[in-house]
């Protein structure tokens, strides 16, 4: 049977076919005679029909199929989600109703209820606490040279992320925080880290080293040229120590010999974690062998509690964390136990000296006083030792000191005197206040213990905040002619414009506090003070700072801001300014801090480097043609100064990440306590 259209098509001229016809042959008509419904027959018949169509007809049909297929896919994806959520929702509703019969949720909660800020911070209504960001763990060290590359993009991203978090809090949080918080220098607000255990309950289970827990998948990247220069300087210093002072406390690079203080290989132990961080595998392995075979604490020798805690105990603990090598923990336990007799005093304020072989302790010969900075700057190390060993006694002893000092009278707006009596437990020599020698690290450790313990020990924070207010009120002044902000001293009501180089730890500590959410004006003060510390180098003939400076309070023609007395013009290769430059660079990214550090580094090389190996302290920073070498390389030059230089010249925030580690006062990084 032919359709009319087919007939018309047959008679019409063949090339033009702008219509569709369907032609059915008699044998193809359904239900007519010889009906064959087999699959093969149907396939053949369809194929024949398809072949009979014109090319245009086939194209149109194919196009229609394709169009329908695309529409199908699009509508499936756009309908899928609503369908899914509808399905889930109805399932959830069913579940709720099934589990809690009779309960029908009219308005399910969308936001969690706002949390109250910590009530104990009531004295500081401007403070609430901040939960530190969760950061990836890093594993590094000489074995695989996990020195990270400059990662400016990453650092900037981190900063950006932090500020964004602050700028866009959920509404509920926003309302709550207006009451209790101040905006920090970056706009951060402090919140409690709920996951961190309080120190008292931390000392239950022995802990693993942080490096063992670490898992870092990030690409290792090359170090900077300035870092390479620091490695070269370290190797040069190490060569001198190895050649002339191996296993002894300090190198005397000019006389090519050594000096002994405790007879415990002080420089070697102080330098262990620096070698790890700098990636000096060979040197590290050699030093490790010495620790394993030759470091013996069972010696009839008097050591200073503070110095051996920050250099030896701190150095061993930090090396244990970085390397994961239990040798260092064993040695740390040994020295920690041997130092404990120092706490057996009537007041529990420790004596300054301990005989680590005999287990006896005593104050200095001329007094029963201890130095305030010394008894309050051993806490990070002993607390960590408790956490690692599960033995509470270390932490208990040092926490008691802090609690006692917290309650003492004799402070001046949070500023402490320099001495404390081991019998009475009272401050002595009242009325003199300094951020320099004998008091300095008291302030540093208030903040750092608070950070170490997860920002929960409010007494520490209170004392720190009060003290910084005291510094601002009594000790901060400006010099002439350059208006440099400096921290002087107060003696019985009289201000002295004297500032120790030691005080230059303060800008770094203030910046660390601001990074952890404290107020913006701490960061402002840090910025002003680090400029001053830099000027203490830049205004001097050798470009190196003296031990002490006096600032001019009144402009005098031809006088600089900084005056130096003949007795104070030595330089001991101290780290404090470089330490603060490191913090400032980490937290601001301002290149000038690296450049200032580079100047200082070059001047150390110019005036203190001894050609046969090692670096030396000098007697006269004002005489470039003869700086008068003193023939001594302090252990902190390797433990601190070069380590902070190396970190300062790095753009990698994960090279000892400051949200994971806190440096002790001898630059040994210890982990910030994580969740239990
Ligand atoms: C180091 O032993 C420590 O940094 C301590 O806190 C102060 N003195 C020296 C460095 O100057």
Question: What is the chains' assembly state?
Answer: single chain
The major beta sheet can be summarized as: 3 strands, antiparallel
Distance separating the two termini: 88 Å
Proportion of residues in helical segments: 40-55%
- The radius of gyration computed from the alpha-carbon positions, rounded to a whole number of angstroms, is 36 Å
Structural class: mainly alpha
Q: Catalogue the unreliable spans.
A: 1-42, 75-203
- Beta-strand content: 5-15%
The largest beta-sheet arranges its strands as 3-4-5
List cofactors, ions and other ligands.
Answer: 1-deoxymannojirimycin
Look at the structure and give the mean pLDDT.
Answer: 79
Characterize the overall form.
globular
Tell me the total number of β-strands.
18
Query: Helical region count?
Result: 22
Protein name: alpha-1,2-Mannosidase
Cofactor: Ca(2+)
Binding site for Ca(2+): 665
GO cellular component, one term: endoplasmic reticulum membrane
């Amino acid at each position: 049977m032919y359709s009319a259209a087919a007939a018309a098509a047959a008679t019409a001229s063949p090339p033009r076919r702008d219509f569709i016809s369907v032609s059915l042959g008699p044998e193809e008509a359904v239900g007519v005679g010889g009906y064959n419904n087999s699959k093969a027959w149907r396939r053949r018949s369809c194929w024949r029909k398809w072949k009979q169509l014109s090319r245009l007809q086939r194209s149109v049909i194919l196009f229609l199929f394709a169009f329908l297929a695309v529409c199908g896919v699009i509508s499936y994806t756009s309908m899928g989600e609503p369908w899914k959520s509808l399905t889930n929702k109805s399932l959830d509703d069913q579940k709720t109703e099934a589990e809690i019969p009779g309960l029908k949720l009219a308005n399910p909660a969308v936001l969690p209820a706002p949390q109250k800020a910590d009530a104990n911070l009531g004295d500081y209504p401007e403070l609430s606490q901040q939960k530190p960001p969760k950061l990836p763990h890093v594993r590094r060290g000489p074995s695989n040279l996990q020195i990270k590359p400059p990662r400016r993009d990453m650092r900037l991203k981190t900063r950006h992320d932090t500020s964004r978090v602050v700028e866009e809090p959920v509404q509920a949080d926003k309302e709550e925080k207006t009451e209790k918080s101040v905006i920090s220098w970056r706009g951060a607000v402090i919140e409690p880290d709920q996951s961190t255990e309080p120190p008292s309950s931390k000392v239950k289970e022995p802990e693993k080293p942080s490096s063992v827990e670490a898992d870092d998948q990030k690409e290792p990247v090359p170090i900077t040229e300035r870092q390479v220069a620091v490695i070269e300087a370290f190797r040069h210093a190490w060569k001198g120590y190895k050649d002339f002072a191996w296993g002894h406390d300090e190198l005397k690079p000019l006389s090519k010999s050594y000096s002994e203080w405790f007879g415990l290989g002080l420089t070697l132990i102080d330098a262990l974690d620096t070698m790890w961080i700098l990636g000096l595998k060979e040197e590290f392995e050699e030093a490790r062998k010495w620790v394993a075979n030759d470091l013996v604490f069972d010696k009839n020798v008097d050591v200073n509690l503070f110095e051996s805690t920050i250099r030896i105990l701190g150095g061993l603990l930090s090396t244990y964390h970085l390397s994961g090598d239990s040798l260092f923990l064993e040695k740390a336990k040994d020295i920690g136990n041997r130092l404990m007799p120092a706490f057996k005093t009537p007041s529990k304020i420790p004596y300054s000296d301990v005989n680590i072989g005999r287990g006896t302790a005593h104050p200095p010969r001329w007094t029963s006083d201890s130095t305030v900075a010394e008894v309050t700057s051993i806490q990070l190390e002993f607390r960590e030792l408790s956490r690692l060993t599960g033995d509470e006694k270390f932490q208990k002893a040092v926490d008691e000191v802090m609690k006692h000092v917290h309650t003492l009278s004799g402070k001046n707006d949070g500023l402490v005197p320099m001495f404390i009596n081991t019998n009475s437990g009272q401050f002595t020599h009242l009325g003199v206040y300094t951020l320099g020698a004998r008091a300095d690290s008291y302030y540093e450790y208030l903040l750092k213990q608070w950070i170490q313990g997860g920002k929960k020990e409010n007494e520490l924070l209170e004392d720190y905040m009060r003290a910084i207010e005291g510094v601002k009120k009594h000790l901060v002044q400006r010099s002439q002619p350059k208006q440099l902000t400096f921290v002087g001293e107060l003696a019985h009501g009289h201000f002295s414009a004297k500032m120790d180089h030691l005080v230059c730890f303060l800008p770094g500590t203030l910046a660390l506090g601001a990074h952890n959410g404290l107020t913006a004006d701490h960061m402002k003060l840090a910025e002003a003070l680090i400029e001053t510390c830099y000027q203490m180098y830049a205004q001097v003939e050798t470009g190196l700072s003296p031990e002490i400076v006096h600032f001019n309070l009144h402009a005098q023609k031809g006088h600089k801001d900084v005056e130096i007395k003949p007795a104070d013009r030595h330089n001991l290769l101290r780290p404090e300014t470089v330490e603060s430059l490191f913090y400032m660079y980490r937290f601001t990214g301002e290149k000038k801090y690296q450049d200032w550090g580079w100047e200082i580094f070059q001047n150390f090389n110019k005036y203190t480097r001894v050609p046969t190996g090692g670096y030396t302290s000098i007697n006269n920073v004002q005489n470039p043609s003869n700086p008068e070498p003193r023939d001594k390389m302090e252990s902190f030059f390797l433990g601190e100064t070069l380590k902070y230089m190396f970190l300062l010249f790095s753009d990698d925030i994960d090279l000892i990440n400051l949200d994971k580690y806190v440096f002790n006062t001898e630059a040994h990084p210890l982990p910030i306590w994580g969740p239990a």
